[in-house]
Amino acid sequence: MQHRASTLAITAGTAASLADCRQDILAGLTAPQKHLAPKYLYDRRGSELFDEICALPEYYPTRTELALLRGNAAEIATLIGPTADVVELGAGSSVKARVLLDNLDRPASYQPVDISAAYLQQQAAEVAAAYPLVTVRPVLADFTRPFVLPSAIAARRTLLFFPGSTIGNLSRPRAAALLDSLAARTPGGALLIGVDICEDAAVLHDAYNDSRGVTAEFNLNLLARLNRELGANFELNEFEHEAVYDLRHKRIEMRLVSQRDQSVTVAGVTIRFRHGEYIVSEHSHKYDPQEFADVAHAAGWAYGHRWIDDAARFCVHYFRALDDAA
Ligand SMILES: C[S@@+](CC[C@H](N)C(=O)[O-])C[C@H]1O[C@@H](n2cnc3c(N)ncnc32)[C@H](O)[C@@H]1O
Hints:
Elements: E1 11-12, H1 22-29, H2 44-54, H3 60-71, H4 73-80, E2 85-89, H5 95-103, E3 109-114, H6 117-130, E4 135-136, E5 139-140, E6 158-162, H7 172-185, E7 190-196, H8 201-208, H9 214-230, E8 239-246, E9 251-258, E10 262-266, E11 269-273, E12 278-285, H10 289-298, E13 301-308, E14 314-321, H11 322-325
Parallel strand pairs: 1-5, 2-3, 2-6, 3-4, 3-5, 6-7
Antiparallel strand pairs: 7-14, 8-9, 9-12, 10-11, 13-14
Helix pairs in contact: 2-9
S-adenosylmethionine binds at residues 39, 42, 47, 50, 54, 62, 90-92, 96, 113-116, 141-144, 163-164, 166.
């Protein structure tokens, strides 16, 4: 057996440490509206907390998407065809990829791409141990920056798998640009992507403000991470998690709200907060299915199929690279 948990090599892409991102972080914290990119939420602790969020009763996206994948696995496998190379963007726990690996016809490889290094290594090793016939190649990379997309092994069909509505964390123009660059780099490939479509403000409010406070802990871990990795001195109990639905932009906005006037030092720079001032730590854009299909089409992806749950909260789209579909 060649893939053992202890020997699985990680391919280093462009993922940077927080110290490397110092300029970007300071630019965000000194902007008129303070903001930090959601990718910074994911260190090992952030990844673990995100998995806890996925198990919460209020957090409908994960169980809805999993049910769509499981319930339509045979159809999805037929569309994708045999011996695919599965490249997962923002792989996290790989739980959803396992549904594909269980149902696809002899998948050749699984290549999880993620920014959360330790967690990526651990999850990839577990997948490798569970699927000895599948070549597992974890890639540490930031997909919002130029990175080398894992190549097909033996020129089989590449399936880009992008679940979790992670695409929704990007602004609409940036999401379109990423889809465009993925299409350009995956000739003959396919894209299976999960997108949140829920616009019910009450359901969204509960999903992002859970009663056990796990989402709050996930959000506040960002400040703890800045303390750990950039020598910042945020007092965690002086900031509160807040998540509001912005109807106009069809997105959840996650915030860290200062509970008083205060100054914090981050990487040697003093950042002042007024009482009530906040850092935007994540956007989660929601897309009507046709709106998303139109964006994907303009980016070079031809509609193949889509699956939507009965409550119309989540959509799994299947696209083929346009050249291939023509
Ligand atoms: C919303 S979670 C989804 C996890 C999993 N795919 C799922 O569906 O449950 C986002 C995942 O993408 C990763 N991620 C976020 N931003 C990223 C980036 N810029 N580049 C690479 N991975 C990123 C995070 O570490 C996390 O594992």
